[in-house]
Amino acid sequence: MLDSKIVQEGELSDPAIVAKDGYDALLAGKDMVVSGFKNKVQVAMGNITPDSIQAAQMEKVQEPVQEKEK
After folding, report:
1. Burial class of residue 25, CB neighbours in 10 A (0-12, 13-18, 19+)
2. Do residues 4 and 10 lie in contact, with contact meaning Cβ atoms separated by under 8 Å?
3. Phi and psi at residue 27, in whole multiples of 5°?
4. In a 10 Å sphere around its CB, with 0-12 CB exposed, 13-18 middle and 19+ buried, how is residue 6 labelled?
5. Which helix (H) or strand (E) holds 46?
């Protein structure tokens, strides 16, 4: 997982912001929160996108980064 494109290319949300959003939601009595604009868009698109397309997209971003041959 640490070799995946999503991790290596720095596309993950800041853990401190995600934790704060979760904590704030907890204090507000919410049972679910989606942190960050990109994640909110992804959730919204997931409601209308077929599972097969979502699975293909996840496979693509989670595949290992290919090392360049020397």
Report:
1. middle
2. no
3. -65, -30
4. middle
5. helix 37-46
Alpha-carbon distance of 54 to 39, in angstroms, equals 14
Only one residue has tokens 């596309």, namely 11
pTM: 0.63
Per-residue pLDDT of 5-27, as tens digits, reads 777 767 778 889 999 999 999 99
Which residues pair with residue 4 across a beta bridge? 64
- Which DSSP string do the residues of 3-28 spell out, in sequence order? TBHHHHTT-SPPHHHHHHHHHHHHHT
